[in-house]
Amino acid sequence: MIDYLPAVMAMLGEAQNRYADPSAWNRLHAELGIRLPNDYQTLVDAYAPIELNCHLSMHHPATEPWNLGDWIQDTARAWSEVPWDDLDADEDPRLLFGLTELSFGTSDGLWPIASTDRGETLFLTAADGTLSGILVEDGEGGWAQYEMSFAEWLYRYLVGEDMAGPNTSAFYPGPVQLRRLPMAAGERPEPWSGPERGM
């Protein structure tokens, strides 16, 4: 069985930990009223703010630009304004996944944790304040559910599996492409590659 966190980090290369700060996570968890998973925190600390393979972006709680807390709250607020009662049954995540209600940024709701430039949003699902499982909206009203950790989801995403529903793979052969997001005006993104992975 694969241990997904070290497997993902092996693909991404040596941890950078440029902004790792336990107090930033403590502040974020206090603001949100929920604790984000350890594997997610480890990967964010190791690499974020980052864009992976030209699409998937992750923010960090200790940086002002690309701040994870601001992004989670802004994204949850935007999703809370969607008129959910007008959806067709095959586009309603409540009916698709047996959710009694649909809320964002609540103890029994969905928590946005990453997104892509293709319009996909990745959510952790919460029940009674405990996070478990992942829902992904594909940017066009389609939803997919994944009963797995974030590290497993990311591993499968990077090896080219459909991780936002059918026909959504974003596979790039060769090393994973990483791009450090600019932190100041006039700064350019810094691209680099992970180690060779035989793909």
Question: How does this model look, in words?
Answer:
- This protein is α+β, with helices and mostly antiparallel strands and 199 residues long.
- It has one domain (4-166): SMI1/KNR4-like.
- 29% of the residues lie in helices and 20% in strands.
- It is built from 6 helices and 8 strands, in the order H-H-H-E-E-H-H-E-E-E-E-H-E-E.
- The protein has helices spanning 4-12, 22-32, 38-47, 68-80, 93-97, 150-158, and strands at 50-52, 56-58, 110-116, 121-127, 130-137, 143-146, 177-180, 190-193.
- Strands 6-5-4-3-2-1-7-8 form an 8-stranded antiparallel beta sheet.
- A hairpin with a 5-residue loop joins strand 5 (130-137) and strand 6.
- Helix 1 crosses helix 6.
- The two termini are 20 Å apart.
Comma- or semicolon-separated keywords:
globular, 199 residues, alpha+beta, 6 helices, 8-stranded antiparallel beta sheet, SMI1/KNR4-like, 8 strands, single chain, 29% helix
Using DSSP, what is the number of strands?
8
- The rounded Rg comes to 16 Å
User: Which parts are unreliable, with pLDDT below 50 for 5 consecutive residues or more?
Assistant: none
**Average pLDDT taken over every residue:** 93
- Can you identify the CATH class? Alpha Beta
Within the largest sheet, what's the order of strands? 6-5-4-3-2-1-7-8
**Which CATH architecture?**
3-Layer(aba) Sandwich
User: Which descriptor suits the 3D outline?
Assistant: globular
The largest pleated sheet is described as: 8 strands, antiparallel
Helix content: 25-40%
Number of helical regions: 6
User: What name does CATH use for the topology?
Assistant: SMI1/KNR4-like
InterPro entries: Knr4/Smi1-like_sf
Protein name: SMI1/KNR4 family protein
Organism: Streptomyces olivochromogenes
